[in-house]
Design goal:
Keywords: Membrane, Transmembrane, Transmembrane helix. It holds the Pfam family GGDEF. This is EAL domain-containing protein. With about 800 residues, the chain is α/β, with parallel strands linked by helices. It folds into four domains: about 240 residues, no CATH class; about 100 residues, PAS domain (Beta-Lactamase); about 150 residues, Alpha-Beta Plaits (2-Layer Sandwich); about 230 residues, EAL domain (TIM Barrel, Alpha-Beta Barrel). It is about 55% helix and about 15% strand. The strands form four sheets. It has an eight-stranded mixed β-barrel, surrounded by five helices. A five-stranded mixed beta sheet has the order 6-7-5-10-11, sandwiched between helices. Strands 1-4-3-2 form a four-stranded antiparallel beta sheet, with helices on both faces. β19, α29 and β20 form a beta-alpha-beta unit.
Length: about 800
């Protein structure tokens, strides 16, 4: 009975695609959801709506042969019921039904085997019209119902009831056609029952009026459910296509490769990228297990992978190093178990990534950060870590501080290149004098240090010091000249009496100064009776307590200037002390004393409060930087004290920057990280000072999001002299930019240095080129006059 409308609608498939609003997820069956769904089906003009209309028409098309047979058969039954006395016009009615059914069957036959991908709105409206015409043709038959006999009426009523229910559900995927079909049937049937004049038929008419909406409601529910299923299937197909595209793109362009194998251990879906990573032909993946293929490149890597698989748990970042024909290759693997419905292991799936570049890059950066770029010796931070470890383990030994006696004369007479060559020769001679297990480091300039491990305090250290002095006393051949340099050595013993790294360094320096003062070319072992330096330290300690209480300490300010804009963007607070009798004392002298005698907390709080007060007042608009000692970060209330200092001045946390050095991570890395994360949560900016002088920074850059990296002045001092120094500065600047951090170069003292660090990609500078540290009043005046001062960057063009 519905073949006409289906065949007609199928011929009107929409050929054009239009953009449409995405369909929403399935909604509950409510009047509003039905209304919105019908509006989307009959009113939307997009591709998805067209596909939905095509699917709805297809649901009816496949039933065309059966419905046409039902139409012809039902019409023939009507003729048979009225056999012998066929009313006038019934044969004509039967021919109309037969013609409509034949036309629909012909159209279905012509389109058989085709699936409607999309249909237009016009096609659905045409289908509604066809449904109305078909139901109208059948409704016309009911004009013979009032005059029919009781058996004939019974047959017609049964036929109409069945056709009403069956036709409504056949047309359920087309709501308007369904409702039009049912409404015409209901109106014609109730009219026929009314014209029959039998009071009993009035009750039947009421039942029919109740039955018809119920059937329509059921059909609409079926349509609503089918529409929801269509959307769900469409979304699933879209997700599958998207996943396929992403996986294909992943395989073709990503640095990673997917791998999967079953119980036999052989790769089930080999890819060119996987073959490239393992440098193995794709055909070998199905012939040998993955573990066996890796064993060919590295038995140790295969053992590590097999151990991870045997554990039966997902693993991440399993690093394997393979000896491939192209060279060592570092791989990182992530893996996940594949289980069946009963939880039994069926195989593994995961991702393999090439980490060769990152591993080698990290190794090179670690070497750069942990060694002196000129001599290849360890640097200051490496020495500090070694000292800290030896002190923590309680091993006996000695620290020798070495200073060349006449190095400046060589630099001044022969130039810096000759001086650099001399430092390299000195490093070679020092290496030749050491025992296995000893560490030699260059601290900067012409200063070196040797850490002796497992030495007998006194005799062994003294003997090594004499060997070093004799070795460096021999002339060096530089530029076809013999240069006599010589060295002095200060010795500090690790005999259990040293409290920390800084104290040991001070002792070695104190002994070195005594050796140089005694005539040079000799060594001195530190003792408590050395004299002036120790007494000065005690004077500084006692004076420092009084200075904090009486306000003798003051902050001086050094500006930070943005290179590109040449504007003052910040100021670093530097503590200054004018002692009543000793005169001005450098922070390099009294800060270590404050740390050793437990005054660093009070000193730090004083500086923090004064800096916040200045930032909220005369320096408003500038971010102020305050140096923080490693000992301050160990205090439990340090974060609270920062919060209180900010609140007391109503200073936004973002306008305060705390500068730390890498030494904070040596003794208590986890505690320092916890404190820094808490400060960062407040909004306080964190800067890593003296970056590039120790390898610990590389590890902790990944564990803590620093805001600023301050490049150590040692690299700036050599940026004009050595290519490797320029490379290091440029590498640090690029790394900071990639990690979203800003960079500040310390100690910029010339326009040439400014040009070099600017070309390296650094953002800000700080140094005597811009300004020496000033009092607060002087700094405020500098800031006011800044716009009248010609920018130094103008000299670079």
């Amino acid at each position: 009975m519905t073949g006409v409308l289906v065949a007609s609608a199928a011929c009107r498939v929409a050929p054009k695609l239009r953009r449409t609003r995405a369909m929403t997820s399935p909604r509950p069956f409510t009047p509003r959801s039905v209304r919105d769904g019908m509006a989307a089906l009959y009113g939307a003009a997009g591709a998805e709506a067209a596909r939905l209309r095509g699917a709805q028409l297809n649901a009816v098309v496949r039933l065309t042969p059966f419905t046409m047979v039902a139409n012809v058969g039902s019409a023939s039954v009507v003729l048979w019921v009225f056999r012998g006395a066929v009313p006038p016009g019934m044969w004509l009615w039967w021919l109309v039904i037969l013609a409509m059914s034949g036309l629909a069957t012909f159209r279905w036959w012509r389109m058989r085997g085709q699936v409607l991908e999309r249909a237009s709105r016009r096609a659905l409206h045409h289908a509604t019209l066809q449904a109305a015409l078909l139901s109208g043709a059948w409704a016309f038959m009911l004009i013979w119902f009032p005059a029919a006999s009781t058996p004939q009426q019974l047959a017609l009523a049964t036929l109409v009831t069945g056709m009403l229910g069956a036709g409504t559900f056949v047309l359920a995927s087309l709501p308007w056609a369904c409702m039009a079909y049912a409404a015409i049937y209901m109106f014609a049937s109730t009219s026929a029952l009314w014209l029959a004049g039998d009071p009993l038929y009035a009750g039947v008419a009421v039942l029919l009026m109740l039955y018809t909406p119920t059937v329509v409601l059921g059909a609409l529910f079926s349509w609503h459910k089918g529409t929801a299923q269509f959307h769900a299937e469409a979304q699933a197909v879209q997700r599958e296509r998207l996943l396929a595209v992403l996986l294909q793109d992943f395989e073709q362009h990503a640095g990673e490769a997917l791998w999967e194998f079953g119980r036999d251990g052989c790769i089930s879906h080999p890819s060119s990228r996987l073959a490239e990573l393992l440098e193995t032909a794709e055909t070998e993946f199905r012939a040998q297990p993955l573990v066996s293929l890796i064993a060919r490149r590295s038995p140790a890597a295969a053992v590590a992978l097999q151990r991870a698989l045997d554990a039966g748990r997902p693993f991440r970042d399993l690093q394997l190093t393979l000896d491939c024909p192209s060279g060592p290759r570092h791989l990182k693997l992530n893996g996940k178990c594949l289980l069946d419905e009963e939880g039994r292991l069926q195989g593994w799936r995961g991702v393999m990534a090439d980490a060769t570049d990152s591993v080698e890059g990290e190794r090179r950066l670690r070497e750069l950060a942990s060694t002196d770029s000129l001599t290849g010796l360890a640097n200051r931070l490496t020495l500090r870590q070694a000292l800290s470890e030896q002190l923590r383990e309680g091993r006996r030994g000695a620290l020798l501080s070495i200073d060349l006696d006449r190095f400046k004369a060589v630099n001044d007479s022969l130039g810096h290149s000759a001086g650099d060559e001399l430092l390299k020769l000195v490093a070679e001679r020092l290496r030749a004098c050491l025992r296995p297990g000893d560490l030699i480091a260059r601290l900067g300039g012409d200063e070196f240090a040797v850490l002796m491990g497992h030495a007998e305090p006194g005799p062994d250290a003294g003997a090594l010091a004499e060997r070093l002095i004799k070795a460096l006393a021999r002339p060096f051949e530089l530029q076809e000249r013999h240069q006599q340099v010589g060295a002095s050595v200060g010795v500090a013993l690790l005999d259990g009496s040293v409290a920390g790294v800084d104290e040991l360094l001070v002792q070695a320096d104190t002994a070195l100064y005594d050796a140089k003062a005694a005539g040079r070319g000799r060594h001195t072992v530190y003792s408590d009776a050395l004299g002036e330096r120790s007494r000065r330290r005690l004077d500084i300690e006692h004076g420092l307590r009084h200075a904090i209480a009486q306000g003798e300490l003051a902050l001086h300010w050094q500006p930070k200037v943005h290179i590109r804009d040449w504007q003052i963007v910040g100021a670093e607070a530097l503590m200054r002390w004018q002692h009543p009798t000793l005169g001005p004392i450098s922070p390099l002298e009294f800060i270590p004393v404050a740390e050793q005698c437990g005054l660093i907390g009070a000193l730090g709080q004083l500086g923090l409060r004064e800096a916040c007060r200045a930032a909220a007042g005369p320096l408003a608009g500038l971010r102020v930087s305050v140096n923080v000692s490693a000992l301050q970060l160990k205090e439990e209330r340090f974060v609270d004290s920062v919060r209180e200092a900010l609140a007391s001045c109503a200073l936004p946390a973002t306008m305060l920057e705390l500068e730390i050095t890498e030494s904070v991570f040596i003794d208590n890395a986890q505690g320092a990280l916890s404190q820094l994360h808490a400060l960062h949560a407040l909004g306080v900016q964190i800067a890593l000072d003296d970056f590039g002088t120790g390898y610990s920074s590389l590890a902790y850059l990944r564990r803590f999001p620093f805001d600023t990296l301050k490049i150590d002045r040692a690299f700036v001092n050599e940026v004009l002299l050595r290519e490797d120094a320029r490379i290091i500065v440029r590498t640090i600047a690029q790394m900071a930019t990639a990690l979203g951090m800003s960079t500040v170069c310390e100690g910029v003292e010339s326009a040439q240095q400014l040009a070099a660090v600017s070309q390296a990609g650094c953002e800000q500078i700080q140094g005597y080129l811009v300004s020496k540290p000033r009092t607060l009043a002087e700094f405020v005046q500098l800031r006011q006059d800044w716009h009248r001062l010609p920018p130094i960057t103008a000299q670079l063009h």
